[in-house]
């Protein structure tokens, strides 16, 4: 017969998974065993009895240790607002194990609080919060989260002020702004100054036709030595993407005067 103190000692000394510990199932309804397991890892809630999985105090300790352990809680506690809040604040991945309907338990200010603690929560939010401009601004205030802009609702990507802020920080996001803003010359100029190829590639045909032609200076550099400088007029009405890729690959571009006697035209 395995003694309780032997099981406790085995749990404390375990280097890897505890699933193979002899006697664990026999004592899974013991409060001392429960507390030691949860102290080791919240995910060890999995090995406890249904009684403890429905015990608010034990489950709170578990999700406070690892939010993802909410998946092992009883159905009723998975719907408990206090438990959910602790789990999400510990680890936003807890949302992977919960129904989206849980957000109905929280008001907008509480949702904003969640986003402030971990902006990754944004991708899990119901649409009504994803289209909330204040929440979107909060997420994008971190430069490391600008990539989330590409999957934001059209209403958010159609906000000019926000689009300018985003492309100024990361010009590659220009391709994800709304179709309406791809007609905007102010935004185009910001991106063009940073990466002319990307600006031309993703600007609307309407804007490119309105611009007529764009003259840029292309500096070809190798081992810090400028081999040659040429000026190229790109016809905005017709150009091949393959030509642009070849022309602008690893080149620095800047706007120059349209007045130049030696222009090269890509048709």
Descriptive terms for the model:
4-stranded mixed beta sheet; 43% helix; disordered C terminus
Structural summary, described in words:
The chain is an alpha+beta fold. Among the domains are: 1-102, no CATH class; 184-267, no CATH class. Helix content is 43%, strand content 10%. It is built from 15 helices and four strands. The protein has helices at 4-13, 31-40, 50-53, 56-65, 75-78, 81-90, 108-117, 127-130, 133-140, 154-157, 160-169, 185-194, 196-202, 205-211, 241-248, and strands at 213-222, 225-235, 252-255, 264-266. The chain has a four-stranded mixed β-sheet with strand order 3-1-2-4. The longest helix is centred in the first third of the chain and has 10 residues, at 4-13. The protein is elongated, with a radius of gyration of 29 Å.
């Amino acid at each position: 017969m395995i003694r309780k103190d032997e099981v406790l000692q085995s749990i404390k000394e375990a280097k890897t998974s505890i699933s193979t510990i002899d006697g664990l199932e026999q004592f899974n309804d013991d409060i001392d065993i429960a507390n030691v397991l949860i102290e080791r890892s919240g995910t060890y809630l999995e090995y406890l009895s249904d009684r403890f999985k429905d015990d608010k105090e034990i489950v709170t300790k578990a999700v406070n240790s690892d939010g993802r352990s909410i998946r092992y809680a009883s159905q009723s506690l998975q719907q408990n607002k206090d438990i959910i809040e602790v789990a999400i604040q510990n680890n936003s991945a807890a949302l992977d194990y919960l129904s989206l309907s849980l957000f109905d338990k929280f008001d907008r200010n509480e949702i904003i609080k969640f986003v402030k603690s971990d902006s990754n929560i944004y991708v899990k939010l119901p649409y009504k919060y994803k289209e909330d401009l204040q929440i979107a601004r909060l997420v994008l205030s971190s430069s490391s989260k600008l990539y989330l802009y590409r999957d934001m609702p059209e209403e958010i990507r159609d906000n000019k002020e926000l689009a300018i802020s985003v492309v100024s920080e990361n010009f590659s996001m220009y391709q994800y702004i709304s179709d309406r803003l791809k007609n905007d010359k102010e935004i185009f100029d910001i991106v063009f100054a940073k990466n002319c190829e990307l600006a031309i590639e993703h600007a609307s045909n309407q804007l490119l036709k309105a611009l007529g032609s764009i003259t840029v200076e292309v500096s070809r550099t190798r081992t810090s030595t400028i081999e040659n400088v040429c000026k190229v007029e790109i016809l905005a009405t017709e150009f091949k993407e393959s030509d642009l890729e070849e022309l602008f690959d690893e080149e620095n571009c800047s706007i120059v005067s349209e007045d130049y006697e030696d222009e090269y035209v890509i048709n």
